[in-house]
Amino acid sequence: MGKSIKVTDQMVLTQVEPYVWEIPPYGDMRVPGRIYGDQETIDHLVDDVKKGKEWNALVQIVNVAALPGIQRASLAMADVHPGYGFPIGGVGAFDLDEGVVSVAGVGYDINCGVRTLRTDLTRQEIEPRKEALADTLYQTVPAGLGSTGDIRLSMKEIDRVLVEGAEFVVRRGYGFDDDLSYVEERGRIAGADPAAVSKKAKERQFKQVGTLGSGNHYLEVQWVDEIYDQRAAAAYSLFPDQILISIHSGSRALGHQSGDDYLPKLEQASRKYGIPIRERELVCAPFNSPEGRTYLSAVNCGINCAFANRQALAHLARIGFQEALGVRPDRILTLYEVAHNTAKVETHEVDGVSKKLVVHRKGATRAFGPAQRELPKAYQQVGQPVLVGGTMGTYSYILHGTELAMEDTFGSALHGAGRMLSRRQAKKRFWGGDVITGLAERGIVIRAHSKAGVAEEAPGAYKDVEQVVAVMHNAGIIRKVARMRPLICIKG
């Protein structure tokens, strides 16, 4: 406590709590930078700066702290690593009157997120049949770069997806109405105007609803390895050895194209409104400007597109289980779905005053605490499920949000393990075939459309998810509920 590290002549890191560090404001910073991390996390971040790495998270945290209207602090969760403009694991909340919306604060994969489905099956029931189940899921769930699904949409129907989100695909027979009660925003965020999305972005999405994609996206069959909190586990209907299905995907080509479309538009807006920009992707527009409102509407369309995509993927996962194991789809229930890579208008308390803010979560997850009206009634006494993916060879976690998260992080938490190596570095260090063989020896079945993609996502390319989760747990932002191990992983 009270320990300080001089990073540069101006930048100092000060430990303010056992797992919380701050960068006091200097230069154009309007608020401090606040980082959740242990000593190893901090040493790694500092080392990147001292080695002169142009792309480093600490400088990005400082740059975000200088944006107009930012409230309280520029935040970084324990899985922090460099991103475009905002760090991955970054959170920034902005006043609606004085603040901005930024492409970098959302990223290109709008509403990349996780849905976890729960079953009443056990590991012992699945283990002897996991190879057959993996083959069926691989055939049933479209994955890979440029993959296409079996939902074919007209331009008018694409517009409906962008407005109606998961509701649209439920009405098409993909899943159940009950699913929506356990999805953030019930799978449909307001304020989405399809006119804000380019024709090119829509055209790229015609055949991609219900597809997993590539990169770090996956469908994983997991088993509950450990229960930490019996009360919360009971609220979430979790038990030891239970089989869960986690789906990690986003808005696919539409989200990426929207990022490309709005980068030059917000670059022009930054110049128009005299907003100094320290990194190209940090271009932004005032929230209340025409450019800001239009961009946020496009983001909302991307959010709904991703909700629809994961709803369709959940349906396909159910079909895979039915075909391989004879499990009825209505026996596979949605535990929760939560988004990362969003900018959303939410109400939070700042200096004792309740304010509406636009909260950017870039590689960070909403983590609302107990008694929040946005949560399903069954979860309100415990808090929101926070779904954190690890790697193909380690663990994933179910956590819950806390009151402290509402006070300190605008109800936000980490979203994953966080990368240690870039994708290019990972491909140089690992070979996909070796990764698949090594995981098979540990009882983990991988079905992948690209061995290069497997190398990029090798477990060794990521931080230790146990350590990252422990930081946020010990800081009181989230609490551990359950830990899962992978049995089957379907990759693009």
Q: If you had to describe this structure to a student in words, what would you say it looks like?
A:
This protein is an alpha+beta fold and about 500 residues long. It has a domain at about 5-95. It is built from 16 helices and 18 strands. It has helices at about 40-50, 55-65, 125, 130-140, 155-165, 165-170, 175-180, 200-205, 230-235, 250-270, 290-325, 405-410, 425-430, 430-440, 450-455, 465-475; strands at about 5, 10-15, 20-25, 35, 75-80, 90-95, 100, 115-120, 220-225, 240-250, 285, 335-350, 355-365, 385-390, 395-400, 410-415, 445-450, 480-490. The strands form two sheets. It has a 16-stranded mixed β-sheet that branches. Strands 7-11 form a two-stranded antiparallel ribbon. A hairpin with a 5-residue loop joins strand 1 (about 5) and strand 2 (about 10-15). Helix 4 crosses helix 11 (about 290-325), helix 8 runs antiparallel to helix 10 (about 250-270) and helix 10 runs antiparallel to helix 11. The longest helix has about 35 residues, at about 290-325. It is globular. The model has no long low-confidence stretch (mean pLDDT about 95).
